[in-house]
């Protein structure tokens, strides 16, 4: 365990519970005893923290809630022409807009799938392009226009093995690529967006029903859907394929019973790719002596030849468990958000831990009307659906106002509540609606939502968000890191005061501004008397060392340091999402007494 990790968050304080060093000598012997105690405490906390799942370096970290204004200038997926349905949402028959059912940023591309037929370019040209569309996230230009032809819907997308390839899953059985050749690809295929081709090597025999979720880890590809057979094997609901060839791993077999349509709503890997996390209407899943009831399951995939169903099971949901509409696993893999709808009694969003034992959901928030899409960031649980007025939260909740005329839904007939127009952000802590309400003009409700490194993508059956015409995909974009050439401002220290005296532990805090967002701070601490720098193990050396401190929700930073009595100089710079640093070091000099005090 390194002191550096303790500085990543003020929630982990290496100095809490240290012995009282009041009156401790500042001699070398006294200093050594103090440092020895600090290092010992570091070792103790290392042992405690090691049991908790830690985020990987690749985990998405947003600086704040995403902007309320969507990005403009991208191609527009049109919700026309409408289609006729007699499903449960329209028992007497009705027409509905076309919609996006899957969307993600895969490398430099935004990729969408659904039942849509038309894509409008920025010059007004309308392409007849069914079920699939992709464009460059930076140039905003469509790729492979009219090059791919699918015979049915695309319902899931995932990154391929190279920067220009993407996996697609859905209901389709045939695809025509840029070469004009029709190829059989039953419910799953690998596309290359560089030359608009259908990959010839990845040619699985395919599934006998739709594929709704895909996730890849190196050469292992995991898929989920309504199938009962794939690649000629009697494997149902979830399967593992070779990511290069599509060959089925027959050792990966988890039978399910009591399933309903839409049995897999989400698949994801934990950061170290040892667990596959699943949510859906899969009924009961079994493997050997272990059995888990929907809506969530966690599978140990650390040994490819012997995957195992863990004891994870989430409980406590309201009636209508098969009203589950969408799910999303957090970037750190430690929670699953579940969105329910279609029955008023079940119109909740839940956040559940992925603990590998029976566990109750962390919180449930009543939305008063259906939710059909959900996504989890490190700042919020984002939700989309047909709701417009939902319950206030246990925390302070801004009522706000109805957006874009979206003021009619089931929730308006209930007393009180707060306005959030078909799209909302809920607190990770307790589900309280956050002050974020751009509005989204869905008819049925948003269906696809995903957190990306640059923001949030929302796919729905409308064409406007926050009054802006986006088409059926809205991109709440923090901005391209490549295009960001403005470094953060120099750091302003809030504490300690210049040349001030502080008790132990010293609170060091500050802030900086950026055109997009400050994501972290670099901090060095120098002992003025001997010109030595604080190291991650608590010692002092001549070598400069800087600690990495994650920016807090407000954009600033704070940390506590228990140091031997003496005079110190703290040096800091801010870092933004593009990796740009403040132009100059900010320095504050202070004296720490070595006595504990109230902070």
**SS element count, helices:** 2
How much of the sequence is in beta strands? 35-45%
As a percent range, the share of helical residues equals under 10%
Give average pLDDT, whole number.
Answer: 86
Q: Which structural category fits the helices and strands? A: mainly beta
CA radius of gyration is 26 Å
Shape: globular
Distance between the termini: 26 Å
Number of strands: 51
Largest sheet: 7 strands, mixed
Low-confidence stretches: 1-58
Question: What does the model show?
Answer:
- The chain has 599 residues and is mainly beta.
- Helices cover 4% and strands 39% of the residues.
- The strands form 16 sheets. Strands 43, 45, 46, 47, 48, 50 and 51 form a seven-stranded mixed β-sheet that branches.
- The two termini are 26 Å apart.
Question: What is this entry, summarized?
Answer:
The protein is mainly beta and 599 residues long. Strands 43, 45, 46, 47, 48, 50 and 51 form a seven-stranded mixed β-sheet that branches. A four-stranded antiparallel β-sheet has the order 10-11-14-15, with no helix packed on it.
Key descriptive features of the protein:
single chain, 599 residues, mainly beta, four-stranded antiparallel beta sheet
Chain-wise SSE layout:
Elements: H1 3-6, H2 28-49, E1 76-78, E2 83-85, E3 94-96, E4 100-106, E5 109-114, E6 118-120, E7 126-128, E8 132-136, E9 149-150, E10 154-159, E11 165-170, E12 174-176, E13 182-184, E14 188-192, E15 197-198, E16 211-217, E17 220-225, E18 238-242, E19 256-257, E20 266-269, E21 275-279, E22 284-287, E23 290-293, E24 296-300, E25 308-309, E26 313-315, E27 324-329, E28 335-340, E29 348-353, E30 358-360, E31 363-366, E32 371-376, E33 381-385, E34 389-390, E35 418-419, E36 423-426, E37 448-452, E38 455-459, E39 464-465, E40 468-469, E41 473-477, E42 492-495, E43 500-504, E44 506-511, E45 518-527, E46 532-534, E47 540-541, E48 547-550, E49 557-561, E50 566-576, E51 586-596
Parallel strand pairs: 26-30, 43-51
Antiparallel strand pairs: 1-6, 2-3, 4-5, 5-8, 6-7, 9-12, 10-11, 11-14, 12-13, 14-15, 16-17, 17-18, 19-22, 20-21, 21-24, 22-23, 24-25, 27-28, 28-29, 29-31, 32-33, 33-36, 34-35, 37-38, 38-41, 39-40, 42-44, 44-49, 45-46, 45-48, 45-50, 46-47, 50-51
């Amino acid at each position: 365990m390194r002191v550096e990790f303790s500085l990543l968050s003020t929630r982990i304080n290496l100095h809490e519970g240290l012995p009282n060093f009041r009156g401790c000598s500042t001699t070398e012997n006294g200093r050594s005893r103090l440092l020895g105690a600090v290092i010992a405490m570091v070792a103790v906390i290392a042992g405690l923290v090691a049991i908790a799942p830690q985020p990987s370096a690749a985990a998405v970290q947003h600086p704040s809630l995403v902007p309320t204004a969507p990005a403009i200038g991208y191609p527009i997926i049109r919700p026309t022409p409408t289609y006729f349905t007699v499903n449960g949402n329209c028992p007497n028959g009705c027409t509905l807009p076309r919609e996006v059912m899957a969307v993600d940023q895969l490398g430099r591309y935004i990729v969408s799938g659904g039942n849509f037929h038309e894509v409008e370019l920025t010059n007004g040209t309308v392409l007849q392009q069914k079920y699939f569309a992709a464009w460059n996230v930076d140039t905003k230009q469509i790729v492979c226009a009219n090059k791919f032809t699918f015979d049915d819907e695309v319902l899931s997308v995932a990154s391929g093995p190279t920067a220009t390839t993407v996996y697609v899953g859905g209901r389709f059985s045939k695809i025509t690529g840029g070469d004009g050749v029709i190829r059989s690809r039953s419910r799953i295929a690998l596309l290359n967006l560089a030359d608009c081709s259908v990959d010839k090597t990845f040619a699985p025999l395919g599934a006998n029903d739709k594929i709704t979720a895909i996730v890849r880890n190196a050469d292992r590809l995991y898929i989920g859907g309504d199938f009962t057979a794939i690649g000629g094997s009697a494997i149902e609901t979830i399967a593992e394929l070779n990511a290069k060839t599509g060959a089925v791993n027959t050792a990966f077999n988890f039978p399910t019973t009591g399933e309903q349509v839409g049995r897999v709503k989400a698949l994801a890997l934990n950061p170290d790719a040892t667990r596959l996390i699943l949510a859906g209407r899969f009924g009961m899943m079994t493997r050997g002596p272990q059995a888990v009831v929907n809506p969530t399951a966690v599978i140990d995939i650390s040994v490819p030849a012997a995957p195992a169903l863990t004891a994870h099971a989430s409980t406590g949901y309201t009636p209508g468990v098969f009203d589950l509409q969408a799910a999303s696993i957090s970037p750190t893999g430690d929670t699953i958000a579940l969105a329910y709808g279609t029955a008023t009694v079940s119109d909740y969003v839940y956040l559940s831990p992925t603990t590998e034992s029976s566990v109750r959901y962390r919180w449930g928030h009543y939305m008063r009307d259906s939710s059909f899409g959900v996504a989890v960031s490190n700042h919020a649980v984002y939700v989309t659906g047909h709701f417009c007025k939902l319950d206030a939260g246990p925390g302070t909740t801004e009522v706000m106002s109805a957006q874009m005329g979206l003021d009619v839904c089931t929730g308006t007939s209930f007393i009180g509540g707060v306005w959030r127009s078909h799209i909302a952000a809920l607190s990770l802590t307790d589900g309280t609606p956050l002050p974020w309400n751009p509005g989204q003009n869905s008819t049925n409700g948003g269906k696809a939502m995903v957190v990306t490194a640059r923001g949030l993508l929302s796919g729905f059956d409308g064409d406007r968000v926050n009054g802006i015409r986006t088409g059926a995909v809205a991109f709440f974009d923090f901005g391209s890191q490549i295009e960001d050439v403005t470094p953060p401002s120099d750091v302003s220290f809030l504490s300690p005061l210049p040349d001030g005296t502080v008790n132990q532990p010293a609170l060091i805090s500050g802030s900086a501004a950026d055109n997009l967002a400050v994501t972290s701070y670099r901090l060095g601490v120098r002992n003025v008397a001997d010109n030595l720098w604080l190291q991650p193990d608590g010692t002092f050396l001549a070598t400069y060392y800087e600690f990495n401190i994650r920016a807090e929700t407000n954009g600033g930073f704070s940390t506590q340091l228990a140091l031997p009595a003496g005079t110190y100089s703290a040096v800091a710079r801010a870092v933004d999402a593009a990796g740009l640093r403040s132009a100059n070091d900010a320095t504050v000099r202070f004296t720490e007494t070595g006595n504990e005090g109230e902070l």
